[in-house]
Write a structure and sequence with these properties.
340 residues; mainly alpha; two-stranded antiparallel sheet; 58% helix; 5% strand
Length: 340
Amino acid sequence: MKTYNVKYKGIETYTAQLQEQLTKEFFAKRQFVTGKDILEFTPIPQINFFMLKSLLLAWEQEIEKVKSPFFDFDHPSVQEVLTEFKNTLSHHIKVKEKSFNTLLYNAIYDALELVFNPNEYLCTHFIAGKDVQTVDIETLRGSLKYLKINAFLIESCIQNFEDEGTVQRYKAEKYIDTIYQKSQGNLHDPIAFVDELNKMMPASLDMFLEESYEESHAAEYGMASTDSSTKSFFDDIGNDALPTRNETFKEEETGPTVADALAEQNKRTSFSLNQKIRFRKELFNDEKDVFEEVIRECDRHTDFDTTLDYLMINFAGRYGWDEDSDVFVEFIDVLMKRYE
């Protein structure tokens, strides 16, 4: 069966070209980038927030260098002043071109990997860490503000383990993999993401995916908290995507979990990444708008016979479908399961 594997060399090439183009355009008029500039640097929020995530990590590492073994940095009064200093400093972000090039390159690359290989990316960059075998749930929750794509995988993991406080890394990875396998239809649409990239520089799915006739298994696989009169720049960003313990993740005992909601949503027409690309290319002549309208219309139908009549009358002749072909049979099989 034809499948599509991630083409990492293509991701690297596109990332380098886009990074060069964007920085060249920006620094032709400006000498440095501010925090506000980063938030709005590209039309894709995930790229911008990945830059902020990397910047925060570098910022915290630099602040740690201030500490000396000859002074008590844990004293409350020292912590208060240090926090005030860090928060004030965070409002004066100033990144010059040489440093920004790396920041932007990594953010573009990571965003592409998150879209085309979300399971492995999240397990590697959000769950795992150097020599880390235990995942702290509150720390994981804090990382959500930087995740704008496929965040439901991490949200579900947090909800499942939040009462434990911490969880073994292998358990968290296994749980995310389970949700990933069950929720293919809820993943961020790579086709839509490529459309967003096209607003900045020409892109196509073929740049990031390659056809294969083998089943792809590529995707299987702190600062002190004190009161301060000055809030950190990093505290304010993305708070709409950062639920508290008693909001998104804390359900009534009889209420649905994130996993339950995803399972219910998947009763609707849903395709895996490979299926979505294959069906659109081979059955709808790679016409994105037509394919999406077909899926919306199928979801409005309440029985399989109505759906099949709609497809055969409107599209079978138009696109010359072969009813005995593997791709047609698979497409109809997925739709049939929608009504079971």
